[in-house]
Design goal:
alpha/beta; 18% strand; binds calcium ion; nine-stranded mixed sheet; binds beta-D-ribofuranose; 9 strands
Length: 307
């Protein structure tokens, strides 16, 4: 089993990514950390803990940074609803939050198992940047560092920038400039993972997981103006799927730099596929085997639904 630590801002697609991680027989989730992003930290943390209990997880959930390194918090309530899961209200959690800050939890967890844990960040990269600043050796301790964020062709929050990077460009720059290799699962890839009508049919038979969470979440998420064509992109689940089966993805090595100064382009992930190999800092995902991806997701959700 591959160990995975997930830093997230649930968030509808974050919720669907956590279910994939928990339900996958290939993965051992060692912890969940939260960051302010799609909604305020109070809500992303509350959602993470409720999802943890609802899915039947039993791992630490640690609260992290509520604000980006430099900028004001930017949220995406129009996409995820004001509390982050569309209109879905899950039962009160019985579990308690970890007493540790997410940044310390990330550092301590990676330190305890060098070379074993995939660190997957699917929200703004604030906790990751703070962890790198506090303990630079985490770059040596991770098995791999995978993000959902960025793009090499287009943005979603504006023409230049993807939400997670735009929300904390300075944090993202710290993460991309660290001496590890970032696997960038950006919009170019995640727009290939659409929960269209055929995909949603696969979720029939998942009982309460489907009726209480997946369907209402996807109804809300899919009603966003940007998704009405081919169904919503389940961005964050793609980053988890990469850890489960990188064979489903084509990646291309590149140099990625984050624009932090631009008047119209802050948060852009400037991706140079022609840069010399000695300056490459990322493997950029370009192509997804979407059939294989949805097979993984459906099987994992079946496992979660079965308890
Ligand atoms: C990313 O931004 C958030 O709204 C989603 O949860 C995903 O992580 C997509 O741009
Ligand atoms: Ca997210």
């Amino acid at each position: 089993m591959k160990k995975i630590l997930i830093d997230c801002d649930p968030g509808i697609d974050d919720a669907l990514a956590l279910a994939l991680a928990h339900g996958s027989p290939e993965l051992d989730v060692v912890g969940v950390t939260t960051v302010g992003g799609n909604v305020e930290l109070e809500h992303t943390t509350d959602n993470a803990l409720r999802l943890h209990d609802y899915y039947g997880m039993d791992v630490p959930v640690a609260r992290g940074a509520g604000r980006p390194l430099v900028r004001e918090l930017r949220t995406a309530g129009d996409v995820h609803g004001n509390t982050g899961l569309g209109g879905v209200v899950l039962p009160e959690p019985k579990s308690e939050l970890s007493g540790r800050h997410a940044v310390d939890f990330i550092i301590d967890t990676l330190a305890a198992a060098p070379g074993e844990i995939s660190l997957v960040a699917v929200g703004p990269l604030t906790n990751i940047a703070l962890a790198l600043r506090k303990e630079p050796r985490i770059v040596e301790w991770v098995r791999e560092f995978v993000i959902m964020g960025g793009s090499y062709t287009r943005g979603n929050t504006n023409p230049a920038a993807e939400f997670n990077i735009l929300a904390d460009p300075e944090g993202a720059a710290v993460a991309f400039n660290a001496s590890w290799r970032t696997v960038m699962i950006g919009l170019d890839l995640t727009y290939q993972a659409r929960a269209n009508a055929a995909v949603r049919e696969r979720f029939a038979g998942l009982g309460r997981l489907e009726s209480e969470l997946i369907t209402p979440c996807l109804d809300f998420y899919g009603s966003h103006i940007s998704y009405q064509d081919e169904g919503p992109a389940i961005h964050d689940a793609c980053a988890v799927a990469y850890v489960i089966d990188p064979g489903l993805f084509e990646t291309v090595p590149a140099r990625v730099d984050v624009e932090t100064q631009g008047r119209f382009t802050s948060g852009m992930t400037v991706t140079d596929f022609r840069a010399p190999a000695d300056v490459h800092n990322a493997d950029v995902a370009t192509t997804l085997d979407s059939e294989g991806f949805w097979d993984l997701v459906t099987d994992a959700y079946r496992n979660v639904a079965a308890g």
